[in-house]
Each structure stands twice: as structure tokens, then as C-alpha cells.
Amino acid sequence: MATRDDILRFCNDYLHIDSFQDFCPKGLQVIGKDEVKKIVTGVSASLELFEKAAKAKADMILVHHGEFWQDGSQIIGRMRKDRLKVLFKHDITLAGYHLPLDAHREIGNNALLVKLTGLKLSPQPFAVYEGNSVGAIGEHRGLAIEQLAERLTDKLETEALVLPFGPAKVKRVGFVSGGGAGHLRDAVKLKLDAFVTGESKESNFHLAKEAGIHVIYAGHYNTETLGIKALGELVVREFGVGVEFIDVPCPL
Length: 252
Hints:
Blueprint: H1 4-14, E1 27-30, E2 38-44, H2 47-55, E3 60-65, H3 78-90, E4 93-96, H4 99-103, H5 109-116, E5 120-121, E6 128-129, E7 132-133, E8 136-143, H6 145-156, E9 161-163, E10 170-176, H7 184-189, E11 194-197, H8 204-211, E12 214-217, H9 226-239, E13 242-245
Parallel strand pairs: 2-3, 2-13, 3-4, 10-11, 11-12
Antiparallel strand pairs: 1-4, 5-8, 6-7, 8-10, 9-12
Helix pairs in contact: 2-3
């Protein structure tokens, strides 16, 4: 029998959550039943995800973006109450893994983006936050920025926005999934050829143009589907429970 606590302990240890300072609770956020037979994975906590997980008879939900954030309201208002009612009614555990799931060198969003685009994962730290490298650098013998953008567009099923300001051949690329636009400056300092993140930031346009670096915005949601899917698959192999990734598409 797979238990909630065993699964949480495994995820916490595998992702080294105690080594991270994060913007949200790491791991358990809402406690549910002890026994787990079915897990649902998803990118972001939402009423839609919770309702679909309940319909799928999930005992546990694993997400990248959890329900509680340090910079958000801690009041349980109408929207949060509606979400929590679903979890309480169906006795579902909710656990969230944010920066630890971006940073992991095997199943992290950024390491998987490097692999997805056919680049080689560099050991060099990138996008360091509170002592941890949360991004990743990918290396290639040389490809056009259009090729890199096409790989992201096809494999992530996204609409990539490209700022083509870098060299003709791309050899070193920095990846910070999701809302990592602020780390463009890290890519410039390291003289990378391109930088890939999820969301855009207006001030990055002129920074990229003047620094001579390509930037690709591939969608916050789409760049962060990889890690949570991989975590679910890992838990299945370890515990033999059922798992289902529920896609709640977001165009941002």
C-alpha cells in the first residue's frame, strides 16, 4: 500500500526541498487521506484542476504552482474556499513543488528543456537564487535561433515569441522556465548566445538588442509542464500507483 506520507517523503528527499528558499510552502499544502491509489499532476492549482482531479478519483494532487504564496493574500475568500471545499470533500492531498522542480538536474523543468531541444546539459550554474542554481545552460555545436524556436514550438505545442538579436549560430543557451525574464541579465553576464524563458518583460527588448543576445518566450505554462509530468512518472515507478496529468491550458 502506498501512503501519502511515504510519497511526500520520497518527493521531498528526491527534490532536496530543504535546501531551497522559496516563495511558497514546499511539499504538503493540504492533507488528505492516508492511502494513495491515484495521483493527478498539474501545473497550477485551480478550481478546474481540483474538480477534474476529483472526477478522476485522485487521492493526491501534485502541482508546480501551489495554492499558497508568500506575496498573496492569506485570507480564505470565496475563490479559495471553493477550491479547498473540493479537496476537503474528496479528502485529497495537495502538494506543491516550485523552485525545487525548476532546479532539479534530472527531472527539473530547465534540465528537461535542455534535453527537449537536443542540447547538452552544462554543469555550469545558471540563474542562482538564494544559493541555488534554478536554471540550466544547454550547449550545441551551433544551430540557428529559428531551429531552436521551432523545436520549442513543436515539442511544447506553444507559440514562441522570438527576439532575434544574437549571433547567427547559437552554441550556449540559458533556460529559466516560467517567469524567469529577470534572469536575462545573468545570461548577458555569461555571454550566452540565447536565453529561453516563459513570460516576456518589456524592458528585456532593449537589453537583449543592445547586448546582442537572442531571447525566446515560450509560455510560462508550457515551459513548466515537463517537470511535474516527470515527477508523476517517477512516483509511479517507485510506488506503483496510478497517475494522470491533467492539462488545464493557459496561453500565458
